Amino acid sequence: MPRSPGGLETLDPTRQRQFSESGYLVLPGFLPEPLRARLVPEVDHWVDEGLRARSIAACAAPEAGGPPPVLELELAAHGELLTHPPLLRTLTQLMGPSFVFHHLHSDRHAPGIAGKPWHHDCEPNDRGDPALRMIHALHYLGGLDEKVGSLAILPGSHRRSADKTALAHLGTGEVPGETVIDRLPAGSTVLLDSALFHTRRPAPDGPGGPRYFIDASYCQTGARWRPVKPYWRHMLARARELGLSDSRWPELFAERHFTEYTGTV
Question: What's the CATH number for 15-257?
Fold first, then answer.
């Protein structure tokens, strides 16, 4: 990715057009090695100490109590990743200067884990405006290869309105027109328009190695978006308290860009 004279990463018009038309952008080796190296043990801690499980439980049964004891963004390197300036500058070129953080997920997929059927991850906004973008940044800390499986996407599928699970009946099977991303170096990032259909496929030759995976999503402002975590206000407040905000992106943790939580569908 070329840099501007001021040091800002820039996407040339061809790559910006590619994202608009295809719905994805691959950034090989995008994360700096020192950050990637700090993220890996944090993911291990998140999984091995049961923090991920408690986060899932807090979403599954919000009536049982408040937020989980630890949020992903409270882990130092995760918070840094969430607001990594090169990432936010790239998102600015794809969404404009005003966007808000939606959620962060972190996991270590065990060897042999089943794939995830075809789906998209776009949440609705209260204007029903498909022109407003939601983007997922998929960070592959160890990269992708035959040992951990692949990501398959359906270019252009973000341009038509469809339910999240409209293609789930296909499982992780091959779909005409798909693109398979199965070779990425460690620290790579794939940006997806959140309405793009995609699937996680397991390693082709059986159980291989673990897949270190973090995804963060961001929404263009201009409408109120549906949250997916019942403790979303606490999450945004903690981000502000931790000083993750940046004056260049003043709306990043603003509550006014969300509707009330009504559960996930």
Answer: 2.60.120.620
Low-confidence residues in the chain, pLDDT < 70: 1-9, 64-65, 206-207, 264-265
Q: Quote the pLDDT of residue 65.
A: 63
Side-chain-facing half-sphere of 123: CA atoms under 13 Å: 27
* Per-residue model confidence (pLDDT) at position 64: 62
Q: Long-range pairs for 257-261 at CB < 8 Å and ≥24 separation?
A: 257/100, 257/219, 257/221, 257/223, 257/224, 257/225, 258/100, 258/224, 258/225, 258/226, 258/227, 258/232, 259/126, 259/224, 259/225, 259/226, 259/227, 261/62, 261/226, 261/227, 261/229, 261/230, 261/232
Rg of the chain, C-alpha, whole Å:
18
pLDDT value of residue 209:
85
User: Cα–Cα distance between 111 and 88 in angstroms, integer?
Assistant: 32
Q: What is the per-residue DSSP string for 181-224?
A: E--B-TTEEEEEETTS-EEEE--TTS----EEEEEEEEEESSSP
CB distance 70 to 123 below 8 Å: no
Query: Angle, nearest 10°, between helix axes 51-60 and 33-48?
Result: 70
C-alpha distances (whole Å) from 79 to each of 14, 141, 189 are 31, 15, 16
Q: What's the chain's length in residues?
A: 265
Distance CA 20, CA 6 (A): 25
